[in-house]
């Protein structure tokens, strides 16, 4: 069994038969995030106490005000997580600092009902104190889920930082693309190549050079983004396989450049 302290992959296959892999957050990173959130909650509860308790001690309705204070303190504890996780798409301040996010199983985004369930069960996870039961369950579960996650069908993942096209356009080497048909004319087979420039070509070549090192979902998204941008610049319709089009563009731009040098 993989330890909950180690990073484990969680793979989801989309309807388009694309496999997306997520890195499951371990116990250590989740505890660090929880410590930040707990500190913020304690500060907010301390501020609430500074306001409510003096009123209770100087008012004939002290018992009612104390009951109201206890209710608000619980609402703050529970509402803190639900509110932030809804506002920040599965992140609390602690999770955001440490690059974590809650999602539903199957790669679906966290919804309100799942957020409510996982945070109501948080009270049980906290038993006997300091998330003792929750941490124990996370060590046993191979995806480091606490009881709240198991009840809500959620898990916490490490946030993936998106790779941009510009990030791969570094250290360019000539890339090999499928050769042209021997019967093809010596002029470019793509129109309007004068509307693109060397930077566009360098970006396309950089993608082709690095594509084998990319995760499948990154590779598909970048190919689609790049192909659509090139087709727009060339006044072409957006259809066909994007990666094959990028190869075609690189091959024909080389012909365009060579013709221009003659």
From TrEMBL:
It is a multi-pass membrane protein. Residues 24-153 form the RDD domain. Keywords: Membrane, Transmembrane, Transmembrane helix. The chain crosses the membrane at residues 32-53, 60-81, 120-140. InterPro entries: RDD. It is found in: Membrane. The keyword Oxidoreductase does not apply. Pfam families: RDD (PF06271). This is RDD family protein. It comes from Candidatus Chloroploca mongolica.
């Amino acid at each position: 069994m993989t330890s909950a302290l180690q990073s484990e992959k969680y793979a989801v296959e989309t309807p388009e038969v694309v496999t997306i892999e997520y890195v499951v957050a371990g116990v250590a990173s989740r505890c660090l995030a929880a410590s930040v959130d707990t500190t913020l909650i304690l500060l907010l509860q301390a501020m609430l106490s500074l306001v409510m308790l003096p009123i209770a001690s100087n008012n004939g309705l002290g018992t009612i005000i104390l009951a109201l204070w206890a209710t608000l303190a619980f609402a703050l504890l529970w509402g803190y997580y639900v509110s932030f996780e809804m506002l920040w798409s599965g992140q609390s301040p602690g999770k955001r600092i440490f690059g974590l996010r809650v999602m539903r199983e199957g790669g679906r985004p966290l919804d309100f009902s799942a957020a409510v369930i996982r945070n109501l069960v948080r009270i049980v996870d906290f038993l006997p104190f300091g998330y003792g039961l929750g941490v124990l369950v996370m060590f046993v579960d191979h995806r480091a889920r606490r009881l709240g996650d198991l009840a809500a069908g959620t898990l916490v993942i490490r946030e993936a930082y998106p790779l941009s096209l510009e990030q791969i356009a570094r250290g360019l080497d000539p890339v090999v693309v499928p050769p042209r048909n021997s019967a093809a004319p010596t002029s470019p087979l793509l129109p309007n190549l004068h509307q693109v420039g060397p930077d566009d070509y360098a970006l396309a070549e950089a993608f082709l050079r690095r594509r084998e090192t990319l995760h499948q979902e990154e590779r598909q998204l970048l190919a689609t983004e790049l192909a659509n941008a090139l087709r727009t610049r060339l006044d072409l319709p957006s259809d066909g396989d994007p990666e094959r089009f990028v190869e075609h563009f690189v091959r024909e731009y080389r012909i365009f450049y060579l013709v221009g040098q003659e």
